[in-house]
Amino acid sequence: WEGNRGKMNFNSDVIFVHPPTNFEANSKPVALWPISEVIPSSPTFEMYPYGFLTMAEYLERHGFSTKIYNLALMYLRENIDVHDFATKLDVELVAIDLHWMVHASGSLTLAKIIKEHNPETPVLFGGLSSTYYYKELIRNPFIDFIIRGDSCEKPLLELMRAIMRRDREEFDNIPNLVWKKNGRMVDNGIKWVEEDLDDILEDPDVLPQLLLSRNLESLPYRGFMENPIVPVFTVRGCSLNCATCGGSEKFYKRFCRREKLAFRSPKKIVRDLKTYNKYGDFPIFLIGDLRQGGEKYWKNVARGIKDEEIDSKLVLELFSPARKGFYEEFEGVDRVNIQISPETYDEDLRARQRTRFTNDALEKNLRWGIESGVDKFDVYFMIGIAGQNEQEVKNTVDYTDELLSIGDEIHSFIAPLAPFVDPGSPAFEKPSSKGFKILFKDVSSHVEAMKSDTWENSLNYETRTLGRREIVENTYEALSQMAQKKKIHQRINEKEYEQKVLRLKLSREANRRIRNGGDPQRILNEVKTSLDSISSTGDLYWGSPKLSLTGLIKAAKRKMLSMLPF
Ligand code: SF4
């Protein structure tokens, strides 16, 4: 490359850009679908992958300037002109995530437009879906590089150094890189797998400062300032093989060459928490079941938190019920929220989808947790798993009556598996043995799926027991019944209940009318304004967050200093 500096100063060498699901999303019925009910994102899936933050910090630490643009969020606020965005770019590299397949359409459109206006600026793709589909993606003339695998920080740094030296010869030696030589794909192979997560996010202030700097373009999701959740990744890889998950042990092994899990040390986790604590009072999510690191590991985390008297709101993930000793160890930690996903009422189906554990074990856990002072338990169920039928969905929702009766601390959620079974997941690779039928296999069919007018047509799967329309209809039923149970058990108030029910009614009716041949655009216009004013995920969040003014001032100061020319 000749280089591309000098047009307009974006003050960064690399920009990380997160696209919306597709650039027609605002005028498509996708906005109506209840497919993001249990994540802090709208159906535009505006939350960007955590890897943006770790890569940005790694590059900054080694002397490169970076910036994150959450184009999906900007697009949600207003119909931004992507061409206008692209013409203003003046950077050495544009990095676009295709981590979750829902962004297939948005990421490809974005890359194409950026290349159109900046033919000399290299475009990089990364993320787990890019890793899976790298051969198909690199054929696009507007994608120059793909970094495969789950360890992109170091390869990206090497790529940046090669780009700055304008030395194409160096590309040959960059691990995990897929690139083009004379128009042909060169795959350097996955040769770098990070084994020590302590080398990632060395400066713990970077993440909260990035997230809390009130820089609207880089906020992770809509409503973040009102309900921030800050992540701490404790592990890379996973020890389970959930049927529909593209982040399973087998995926990491086969597609990322990860032979063993990489952990962040308890010492670093505690240091992260201590740092984040000073920025305010908001939930901090320790991502990954701490028990994967062994007993000594999770005990050291719990003890470190208590020794340092960290009083953050801690969100912990359990992949399966824990022993009583786990709760006893966390007793004395100020505020704890536990998340657990039994997926379904039927224990055999649960074993097939996730891992085997009994309802009795789950209930015991909830009781032990409450006795030990757990403040909140979030229990997640799913619609669309193999073997589930209408009756089983109903049994699952009914079962939450029992769970919610155990204590006020318990909150239950149900959501459809939508829109995609992850490419590379066990069910995607061997659908018939897992009870699934996969309907779309390649990138382009997923691109088209996200442009569908009805959400059943966007689903890339059906099961032997539930077709796509049945998954949709069962979802509406289950969500309505779940809302009712939440109201009865006083997890939501009357107004929240009415809002949820109204939202579901509007969405279901719109979907039905479109399915029956109604004009999607007209129907969308009719219901969208009403839908936008209705919140559906209030009980996802935990208490009222408070951001510390001192922390935010520090973030602002740091930002201003970083703009000075020294
Ligand atoms: S869904 Fe299952 S396989 Fe995927 S990350 Fe979670 S526990 Fe691991």
Describe the structure.
By secondary structure, the protein is an alpha/beta fold. The strands form five sheets. A seven-stranded mixed beta sheet has the order 2-1-3-4-5-6-7, with helices on both faces. Strand 13, helix 12 (324-330) and strand 14 (335-343) form a beta-alpha-beta unit. The chain is globular and about 65 Å long. Residues 238, 240-242, 245, 247-248, 319 line the site of iron/sulfur cluster. Keywords: Iron, Iron-sulfur, Metal-binding, Methyltransferase, S-adenosyl-L-methionine, Transferase. InterPro entries: B12_SAM_Ta0216 (IPR026447), BchE-like (IPR051198), Cobalamin-bd (IPR006158), Cobalamin-bd_sf (IPR036724), Elp3/MiaA/NifB-like_rSAM (IPR006638), Methyltransferase_Class_B (IPR034466), rSAM (IPR007197), rSAM_sf (IPR058240). This is B12-binding domain-containing protein.
